[in-house]
Amino acid sequence: MPWVSQYLVMKRVSIEPNFHSLYSNFLDTLKNPEFNKMVLNETYRNIKVLLTSDKAAANFSDRSLLKNLGHWLGMITLAKNKPILHTDLDVKSLLLEAYVKGQQELLYVVPFVAKVLESSIRSVVFRPPNPWTMAIMNVLAELHQEHDLKLNLKFEIEVLCKNLALDINELKPGNLLKDKDRLKNLDEQLSAPKKDVKQPEELPPITTTTTSTTPATSTTCTATVPPQPQYSYHDINVYSLAGLAPHITLNPTIPLFQAHPQLKQCVRQAIERAVQELVHPVVDRSIKIAMTTCEQIVRKDFALDSEESRMRIAAHHMMRNLTAGMAMITCREPLLMSISTNLKNSFASALRTASPQQREMMDQAAAQLAQDNCELACCFIQKTAVEKAGPEMDKRLATEFELRKHARQEGRRYCDPVVLTYQAERMPEQIRLKVGGVDPKQLAVYEEFARNVPGFLPTNDLSQPTGFLAQPMKQAWATDDVAQIYDKCITELEQHLHAIPPTLAMNPQAQALRSLLEVVVLSRNSRDAIAALGLLQKAVEGLLDATSGADADLLLRYRECHLLVLKALQDGRAYGSPWCNKQITRCLIECRDEYKYNVEAVELLIRNHLVNMQQYDLHLAQSMENGLNYMAVAFAMQLVKILLVDERSVAHITEADLFHTIETLMRINAHSRGNAPEGLPQLMEVVRSNYEAMIDRAHGGPNFMMHSGISQASEYDDPPGLREKAEYLLREWVNLYHSAAAGRDSTKAFSAFVGQVELLERKMHQQGILKTDDLITRFFRLCTEMCVEISYRAQAEQQHNPAANPTMIRAKCYHNLDAFVRLIALLVKHSGEATNTVTKINLLNKVLGIVVGVLLQDHDVRQSEFQQLPYHRIFIMLLLELNAPEHVLETINFQTLTAFCNTFHILRPTKAPGFVYAWLELISHRIFIARMLAHTPQQKGWPMYAQLLIDLFKYLAPFLRNVELTKPMQILYKGTLRVLLVLLHDFPEFLCDYHYGFCDVIPPNCIQLRNLILSAFPRNMRLPDPFTPNLKVDMLSEINIAPRILTNFTGVMPPQFKKDLDSYLKTRSPVTFLSDLRSNLQVSNEPGNRYNLQLINALVLYVGTQAIAHIHNKGSTPSMSTITHSAHMDIFQNLAVDLDTEGRYLFLNAIANQLRYPNSHTHYFSCTMLYLFAEANTEAIQEQITRVLLERLIVNRPHPWGLLITFIELIKNPAFKFWNHEFVHCAPEIEKLFQSVAQCCMGQKQAQQVMEGTGAS
Fold first, then answer.
1. Phi, psi (5° rounding) for residue 1048?
2. Which one in 36, 461, 1098, 1224 has a CA-CA gap of 20 to 30 Å to 1186?
3. Residues 262 and 150 in one domain
4. Of 979, 997, 1022, which marks where a domain is finished?
5. How confident is the model at residue 1247 (pLDDT cuts 50, 70, 90)?
């Protein structure tokens, strides 16, 4: 029974709160008082162990266990009307002791007490208003009134009051917490009992084998005989706890592992847990002790030295040595015990029903593994302390450094007169300090400190430790901004927690948010990179651990809170994007498999610019193991689909960012031989076009260079000092550009200007910035960021000072931007040989990619605060610079325009809506339009410019479907109309050739926009007057000429559909084609979105062109008689009859889109529309045909010529009996509208005759 009671409490009750009722019923069913007493005693014993344990803030598991045991204790005592005896547990005194000892103890005690009292509501005796219960509740109410009590503790008390049906405002808090007399007589329950200092901890007796006694003996001796160092200082990576993994020692001869190899995975977790528990107190204590000693000695030794760099290096050497030594003697023994204990617990949890022999093997293994890995864990903590100590020492000595710098700026040698006097009067000559520098023998002492760091192998590297943590810590400590960022984060998290409904308060995700808040508070208090790293890991793992099955609102709030924390850490005033993105990516790579493949969370991190895509792409490709890791393959497929297929919702991600992932998926698909994972072939088919286009230009091609520039725009990890060098060079270049000698008014001045540029380039080479492509890329990225930041600051001045002159503000922005653009243009022109156009274009694409990448990241991060001005200025000035009338630029003009088109396509409004006004201004600039549509030979610029207009229409489409346009969208729409009017006037042939592609993406209700496009006709054509009486359309010379359509409209047709369509047009088989046609065109049952509009448009145009060719092959021309009785007309008539109102409207619109200037398509589709009207079997079809034509005529001009002649023929020709139809006279206002349109089309007199039935056709 003792074993069962211990097992029940330790292995079940403490970790399975959901089954407490079951276990309580189990006790009731047994009805064994002796066993019940054993369980109760075991419960008290475990509670006391946890109450007296080390209460580290990050030890969430102990706090969770204590809460669970509190709930269990209340259930088996209070709920069953049994008291909690004072001798077993004094609850009131426990609260008092926790209050006195501080917040850490309260974090343990308050939730525990709340859980105990929770069960009193089910008790007849102890439910409120029982005096014992109310006395404790009054103490909690008194605690609740404390202003500095943590929010989550107040929340625990409030939840308890709600559960007990008490109003916290009606409780009667006393003055117990301030009662000094009671404090004096307090029996401590939160302190560990006093120990004899003989052994660090008794290890279990090991007697079975001879070999197993060795580790036990060595374990007890480590306190007196430190082992020889095993690691050099640079071997240990303290970037994260995962840095321990490569060095962990696992002895293969350990019997436990031979019998149970799966237990090896417990070792890493046990060691990491031990380090995590000890790292913060050891680091803080070591630095605190070493700091004062080191500071005083260094101040004394270097008091007369004027060189601050020598002082700083010596301070770092000494601090490094003292801190490491202090950490080593502090943490070795606790580490040994902690690792051993963690291992035993892990082994025991894994082997729950272990035999005595197995338990003995576990003890042996734990002892040996603890001994083997203690040195590693100790080195990790030592180096962590050293990395944190350096910046701390810089803070302490900052004043000393500044005094020396100030003296040097004033041209004098620094010397502390007080120390000089003391040295001269008091110190003997042999040890007296000299003015000017420290004696070499004294420096040798500091160098010895650097060579022999305690716990590490000796080294000859005397450089200061510049670990990955130094930079973020220095950045964070350099200003109080980091505290403000943390405070803001804490406030917002608290607001989120308050907004969670009480019914969800105990939800695991709500509890996880409270835990996250605690870690944020701890990080705010310590404000060091170690704590920040722990917070970052918790936030990332929390996101990855989120389950979509939870309450939707709570899940959304949960994700927002975790992103909020990561964004706060990413803030440039805190730790910055370089550091944060690197850590987050590493967390994603190194986390456990059950977290790693949460596609929603990873997509969320990528969307928010929190992942280094190059590094993550490589990892994902490798983790698929050529298709063997099915989980990774499925995850990669989902991620590619979300990021690159489903509306490509993440603007800054392209195929280049997932290059290796897609390549691996392609390879898996190719080698699968028909057994590819479900959906992979279809996914690869969708991705293939963009991917292959990228491959075609890869590794040196322009498109590859642009996408690599975009990817590298989000990279950081710059070499030390690069930003400062880039800033210096940019500032010097701006001064040079704006100097009088750099004017461009004469050839001589321009030559001097170019000479200055060459001098600057040589200076760049000396600085090491133009030595490699990577450094060039980083230089341009940094310059772009700095110019943009200057622009933001200038515009912020205008917001703070509305009276400031906007022109002056813009000039201030342009001052740097124009100089930067000129530098890019000159470097493009002068890169490589004069005849080597590839180098120039690659550089241009790379720079444009960098600017695009910076813009997209800025757009996503700043959101509503994003400013278009700096980016617009860079693009427009660079476009003008590179289109200047110079021979070297003329040779690369088409490639330059292609680069700008690709840039604008990547920045299309659906991807960067905040840039849309600037984008429209760029693509409509007179120079750009002229170059693209007029100057480029063989109209090679036309398809690229057409794609840009399609990008614009696609963005406008959702807004235009809703007639209620907002003011910003009205402005954008008017701008679009103006662009189309310019194109209609100057480049009508362009609109003629691409009318299909444009109309394909314009919503059906955008009548005027479509009319502008359809009204275009070639400039060399004289358009016949459609109002000419008795106009014979079929006699016009142009009516048999087919128009040029440059859009691949058949590409949207599914292959099988097109095959069946061609077969039907030739042989009228398969016979089911017409009956299946509607279902092939239908995509959903949602009103307004039932049909595939693009497929309907393609079907109509394709069938029409095939019909025209069929008629011409028979030696005829399209007319009302020749278009009938054919497979082509069967399809059109079937669509008119079989489709519902929505589908028929789209079908008729597709026909009306071909009614343009005189050509064979206009003639055929005009005849088709009239034929469908004449042969319609219901008036509903005729009414809908009339509607489609009429709504295009009642808007402002221009009106397409083909539309006019079709409508005139319809209302004028008595064969159609138009005026006899009921829908013409259904309402007075409708009839009046028809009369008005008829008068406009035919003149008042002729219209009157037609309406009265006297007119002739």
1. -80, 85
2. 1098
3. no
4. 1022
5. low
Higher pLDDT, 674 or 329: 329
Comparing 230 with 213, the larger pLDDT belongs to 230
Q: How does DSSP assign 52-69, residue by residue? A: TS---TT-HHHHHHHHHH
Are residues 306 and 166 part of one domain? Answer: no
Alpha helices in 697-805 (DSSP H): 702-712, 722-738, 747-767, 773-800
CB 840 within 8 A of CB 892: yes
Residue 632 is assigned to a structural domain of this protein? no
The pLDDT score that the predictor gives to residue 509 is 82
- Confirm whether 747 is domain-assigned: yes
Residues spanned by the domain of 1219? 1033-1251
Residue 8 is part of a domain; what is its CATH number? 1.25.40.180
Most confident residue range from 275-289, 489-503, 533-547: 275-289
> DSSP letter at 1038?
G
Q: What is the rounded CA–CA span in Å between residue 657 and residue 618?
A: 10
Residue 1190 covered by a domain: yes
Q: Look at residue 207 in the predicted model and tell me its pLDDT.
A: 30
Q: Could you tell me the CATH number of the domain that includes residue 759? A: 1.25.40.790
Burial group, residue 1122, by CB count within 10 angstroms (0-12, 13-18, 19+): middle
Q: Which of 401, 432, 451 is the last residue of a domain?
A: 451
Q: Helix H segments across 452-551?
A: 470-477, 481-499, 508-526, 529-545
Shortest CA distance to 622 belongs to which of 585, 591, 665, 656?
665
Look at the block and give the residue holding tokens 């995962």: 242
CA atoms of 152 and 497, how far apart (whole Å): 9
DSSP structural state of residue 230: -
Number of folded domains in the chain?
Answer: 5
Question: What is the rounded CA–CA span in Å between residue 182 and residue 96?
Answer: 9
Do 685 and 721 touch, CB atoms closer than 8 A?
Answer: no
pLDDT 10s digits, 602-659: 888 888 888 888 788 888 888 888 778 888 888 888 888 888 876 554 556 777 778 8
Burial class (CB in 10 A: 0-12, 13-18, 19+), 62: middle
Q: Are 1043 and 1163 found together in one domain?
A: yes
Q: Name the phi and psi angles at 1031, rounded to 5.
A: -65, 125
**949 and 1096 assigned to the same domain:** no
The pLDDT confidence band at residue 674, using thresholds 50, 70 and 90, is low
Distance CA 704, CA 700 (A): 6
CA distance linking residue 1093 with residue 1109, whole number of Å: 25
Residue 149: Cβ within 10 Å count: 16
Q: Amino acid letter at 303?
A: A
User: Which tens digits make up the pLDDT trace of 378-411?
Assistant: 999 999 898 888 888 888 888 888 888 777 777 7
What tokens does 924 get? 């409509």
DSSP per-residue letters across 1159-1187: SHHHHHHHHHHHHHHHH-SSHHHHHHHHH
Q: Does 629 reside within a domain?
A: no
CATH number at residue 1235: 1.25.40.800
Q: What is the pLDDT of residues 197-222, one digit of tens each?
A: 333 333 333 233 323 333 333 333 33
The residue ranking higher by pLDDT, 986 or 1257, is 986
DSSP state of 86: T
Residue 793, φ and ψ in degrees, nearest 5: -65, -40
Taking every pair of C-alpha atoms in the chain, what is the biggest distance, in angstroms? 133
Percent above pLDDT 90 for the chain: 27
pLDDT at 945 over 90: yes
Reading the block at residue 1243, the tokens are 């003149």
Task: Give the residues across from 1091 on adjacent strands.
Answer: 1082
Q: Looking at the structure, tell me whether residues 1018 and 1038 fall in a common domain.
A: no
* Sequence-ordered list of residues with C-beta below 8 angstroms from that of 1069, at least 6 positions apart, any chain: 1063
Q: Are residues 44 and 158 in the same domain?
A: yes
The one-letter code for the residue type at 253 is T
Are 977 and 870 within one domain? no
